Amino acid sequence: MRMTNLAQLKSGRLAEAASPAGAVVDGRPIAAVPPPFYDPASLLGAVLYAVLFALAAWVIGRALRLAIHRILAYDKRALMDRTTVQFLGQLAQIGVYLLAFISYAHIVPALAHLGTAWLAGVSVISVVIGLAAQNTLGNLIAGVSLVLYRPFKVGDRLQVAAPTGLETGVVQSVNLGYTVLKTDDNRQIVVPNSLIASQTIINKSGEDQRVLCCVDLCLHYEADLDKARSIVTALAGQDHRVKSICGCPVTKAGPAGVVLTLIAWCANDDDASNVKCALLEEARNQFIRAGIGPPFPQQIVTLSPHCLTPPAGPVPGPGAGQTGRAWPSS
């Protein structure tokens, strides 16, 4: 027994319970052997393992992020869904940090005992966390559903309802909680995943990206509609962004004139917007040269003969019992 204790003492593995303070070996008292610096039961060892696990989790997470960026950069033929890869990459990074914390808690005895004590109240803690972070969890679950069902992907052009009205933008990213769109005027629209998953959106990046362009032109009632129609149709036919012309009917008759609408197909939404602006300006110049004027609001006032007959007697004044001046004789 003495030889065993001495061998353990020389190897540095003598536990405190095996050789407590005041133990006697060969008639000489010995003190308890201090634990090594890497012992997770000591404060220095717990801090050391915390730094090591945090550094390992950061390195692995950064390696995952760089690997995902490199894979997407080399995917020129779009063989993988960028939205799914980015979303799963973010989930993997969170999983790495969570696994590192669980492993660290299992190594450190104090955290292991604390986790056992918390196990009894895990139901109460889950309810509290669920109520406190219901919006965050809802966005996370909605993001998973967006990745699974894939109603849109990164790079698609969407039209969504925003506090400022209907907004159109290109999907930049689908994160764990939010979907980020970039508009044509370089604004970023951040929409929660739960909101974008529950509302009706318009995806303008389908297989057929053609957009119907409608250009409204207001003309006077006395204007030559056939001549105006031929001018607008010729202008649209000269624009290379117009794929086909569907027609140019009269779509509205107002109190001052009629509305002539040119209907044509364009390649995409940007071309349709630019064609509309160009046709409005060119048609206005051509109409002025052709003597086709725009409508002007008119109002016809008809006076009844009874309104021109002066009343009999004096006109009542402003006060009670007062009389004003009489109507002038014509």
What would you say this structure looks like, in words?
There is one protein chain. Helix content is 45%, strand content 20%. With 330 residues, the chain is of the alpha+beta class. Among the domains are: 43-132, no CATH class; 150-203, SH3 type barrels; 211-290, Alpha-Beta Plaits (2-Layer Sandwich), CATH 3.30.70. The strands form 3 sheets. It has a 5-stranded antiparallel β-sheet. Strands 8, 9, 10 and 11 form a 4-stranded antiparallel β-sheet that branches. Strand 10 and strand 11 (257-266) form a beta hairpin. The protein is elongated, with a radius of gyration of 41 Å. 13% of the residues are buried.
